[in-house]
Amino acid sequence: MASQNKRIAKELAECTSSPPPGITVTLPNDSDLHKWHVTLDGPENSVYAGGRFGLVVSLPADYPFRAPTVTFATRIYHPNVTNDQLGNICLGPLKAENWKPSTRLAGVLEAVRALLAEPQPDDPLEARIADEFRAERQEFDKNARSYVQRYAKGPVKFDVAAVGAAAAGEGGEDKKGAGGAATAAGASRSGGNTASGP
Amino acid sequence: MDTDDDFMSNVSSEDDMLPDDSDNDLSGDEDFGFDDEPDAYIDSQKEIGHKKKAAYDITFKVYQPSDVLKQQTELIDEVNMILDISKEEAAILLRYFRWNKERLIEDYMDRPSQVLDAAGLAQTSAGPPKMQVIPGFVCDICCEDEPGLESFALKCGHRYCVDCYRHYLSQKISREGEAARIQCPSEGCNIIIDARSLDLLVTAELTERYHELLHRTYVEDKETLKWCPAPDCQNAVECAVKKKDLDKVVPTVSCICGHRFCFGCILNDHQPAPCELVKKWLKKCADDSETANWISANTKECPKCNSTIEKNGGCNHMTCRKCKHEFCWMCMGLWSEHGTSWYNCNRFEEKSGTDARDAQAKSRVSLERYLHYYNRYANHEQSARLDKDIYHKTEKKMVQLQKESGMSWIEVQYLNSASQALQTCRQTLMWTYAFAFYLARNNLTEIFEDNQKDLEMAVEALSEMFEKPIAELADSDLKVDIINKTSYCNKRRVILLDDTAQKLSEGLWTFNTELTSLGANGGSSARR
Ligand SMILES: [Zn+2]
Ligand SMILES: [Zn+2]
Ligand SMILES: [Zn+2]
Ligand SMILES: [Zn+2]
Ligand SMILES: [Zn+2]
Ligand SMILES: [Zn+2]
Predict the structure, then answer these.
(1) The UBC core domain covers which part of the protein (chain A) (predicted)?
(2) pTM for this predicted structure
């Protein structure tokens, strides 16, 4: 619908002309306004500082009446992001029951960045990482920094996150938690994803 | 609430739906001294006191959609009068307070502005909702700014174009099934859209769906009300049994549509087993389905001549066509022994402890024990289904019977009663085996097993008569036998349910599992 594109075009223009701090928005395909690539700079004074994180934003056909999906394309060690290649995020405003059509993507992206500065362990997607964040902060910091070194340096890639990520990412948390990421053996963990399919 | 229900709703007890044997009770089986079929109005009986209310009997009320609507309207009108607020506001407040009128009035009297705020009703005195064209308006959702754009705002003043408002509302109503708590589309604004604003904005079709959803929240918000789960049934049932009571009572209710269900868990009637046991049992059966699959097979071999025997009725008394050997489908034992007092087809005999020393033997015994009960549970479930098939054939039979014997429709109703008794009793029997599986032995279990066995024997006997060819059914002696046996089956069922319910309410049963579901992930032991 043309009127919805008007809204998206306006938001895109705002995000590119005066982007929120630490956030860069690009369109991977100029003819598709519904797919955004976002680069997020890890907030200063956080364990993610110095890292650059790729986010893929997909706007549904009836945006803004339904919430966009936002996923991390870059692996990140965080209580509210699934510790896998899907990179699903648990963020209040993006939940269907909370989403309001007046919500702006710039605000959503800022909320994601704020989540890096201040993880919410009480509403986790990765229970084990949340526990670690609360009880063994030093260990958490070490793991998060090691993920940054491993995945969030150099040019940002957006093609990692699988299509249909949102559907497959739910319900597999405990398995992944048990698999453990303490050794940061990221490459060998892809098996965990296939096991938790729909 | 009980002013208008004389004919609209149905004060009832679960026995209403039992085949009524009061007028075909020719049996003379009066040795039970038990008034087994309480009439519909149990409450008044209780007050009179000379008639005993069965322990498993639950008081409940059935409401038709018009009753439910009327109740809501009355509550809304009442709050509208007492608090001097509009009906829309009264409705929103009542929904916010989950229809607890007393608490709403009390809280509102104390601190009206906080209550209005919390329920999403801003305190401004705007007129009736209307669409407006405002010069220079830009819709914040679609970013349209063309002149003459119609817009709408709730009391909060967050204004959007009418198209966006409509799209938003139809999304909420048809896609998310939301009605009572649809907020203003503005981020962070908790103002709730009222019915009048909605009626103004959306299509008639959507308005209908919206009111239907609103209507549903009335029942869904109240712990004492539940929808009848039967497909296409619009009735609601009111019952005072609370979640915390479910370890003491199995609240079976029956809707006027004929569906009997548990008010606690909405599953089909599962007396005498308490809800929590049913939940655990069904989970266990699902987990162990592969192990137990062979049981549900419809064919077995004759234990004597090994020829294949197919089960095509509910009756467990099998006679081999070839060698005429008579045996029990469930335990494959001699049928002739089933009538004797020492034979127990229903009880699982624990092997003496000595040969179950090592873990492997123990797990084998526990599997055997499970299979014993599952076998019988599944068999009654299957038989109930087969009996139901027979019931459909029964209707045909009855027509034939009328032709052949010259009996009237009324005179052949005993077959209908028999068929219903078979299904009801088998459903009870089925759940007695799940009950027994979790029952820890004490001095009371034997009475239970005796009741179970008596009911089972009676049901099998009736089932056998029921499957006789039409020619024999026309025989007047058999008719009397069937009538008597039907009545006897119903009595045995009542006795069993009364005994189990009584002891459950007194906490006399001990179970080898927890009856409370506080620890939601407690029952994981069933997994390998
Ligand atoms: Zn608009
Ligand atoms: Zn508002
Ligand atoms: Zn019903
Ligand atoms: Zn139940
Ligand atoms: Zn045989
Ligand atoms: Zn047997």
Answers:
(1) 3-153
(2) 0.62
Two tokens, residue B189: 């604004």
A3 inside 8 A of chain B by CB = yes
Q: How many domains does chain B have?
A: 5
Of B163, B167, B185, the CB nearest to A102: B185
Compute mean pLDDT per 10 residues along chain B, 528 residues long, and list them: 40 42 39 37 37 77 92 93 89 89 93 84 66 92 92 91 93 87 90 84 88 85 90 93 91 94 94 94 82 59 81 77 84 79 72 56 77 89 82 74 74 84 94 95 91 94 85 82 95 96 93 69 34
CA distances from B359 to B71, B356, B362, B483 (A): 60, 8, 5, 51
Q: Which amino acid does the sequence have at B20?
A: D
Domain identity same for B252 and B171: no
Residues B480 and B377 grouped into a single domain: yes
Number of helices (H), then strands (E), belonging to chain B: the values are 16, 13
Ligand 6 centroid distance, CA of B374 (Å): 14
Note whether B332 and B315 are same-domain residues: yes
* Nearest-angstrom CA–CA distance, B162 and B158: 12
Q: Which residues of B touch A3 (CB under 8 A)?
A: 142-144, 163
Residue type, B81: M
Distance (Å) of CA B256 to CA B62, B236, B259, B260: 7, 10, 7, 9
Q: Categorize the per-residue pLDDT at A159 as very low, low, confident or very high, splitting at 50, 70 and 90.
A: confident
Are residue B164 and residue B176 in the same domain, yes or no? Answer: yes
- Check CB contact under 8 Å for A65 and B176: no
Please state whether beta strands B236-239 and B60-63 pair in parallel, antiparallel, or not at all (unpaired).
antiparallel
- The residues that bridge with B190 in the sheet, in sequence order, are none
**What are the phi and psi torsion angles at B488 (to 5°)?**
-65, -45
Q: What is the dihedral of CA B487, B489, B494, B496, to 10 degrees?
A: 160
Q: In the 8-state DSSP scheme, what is residue B173?
A: I
Q: Which of B36, B13, B20, B14 is nearest to B416 (CA)?
A: B20
Give distance in angstroms: CA of B383 to centre of ligand 6. 14
- The verdict on B37 and B96 lying in the same domain is no
Helix (H, G, I), strand (E, B) or coil at A89: strand
User: Minimal Cα–Cα distance from A46 to chain B, Å?
Assistant: 28
Indicate the helix (H) or strand (E) that contains B284.
helix B275-287
- What architecture is domain A4-195? Roll (3.10)
Of B97, B104, B96, nearest in space to B120 by CA? B96
For residue A6, the chain B residues in CB contact (below 8 A) are 142-144
Q: Are residues B328 and B389 in the same domain?
A: no
B179 shares a domain with B42: no
ipTM value, please give it.
0.74
For residue B93, which of B64, B114, B63, B67 has the smallest C-alpha distance? B114
Is B509:B441 a contact under the CB 8 Å cutoff? no
For residue B240, give its domain range: 4-64+222-269
CA-based radius of gyration for chain A:
16
In sequence order, the β-bridge partners of residue B238 are B61, B225
In a domain, B514, yes or no: no
Cβ <8 Å between B176 and A102: no
Cβ contact B490:B21 at 8 Å: yes
Q: Using 50, 70 and 90 to split pLDDT, how confident is the model at A84?
A: confident
Do B115 and B87 fall within a single domain?
yes
Which residue of chain B has the CA closest to A8? B142
CA distances to A191, B33, B44, B90, B138 from B101, rounded to whole Å, are 55, 47, 28, 10, 41
Report the alpha-carbon distance of residue A75 to residue A77 in Å, rounded.
Answer: 7
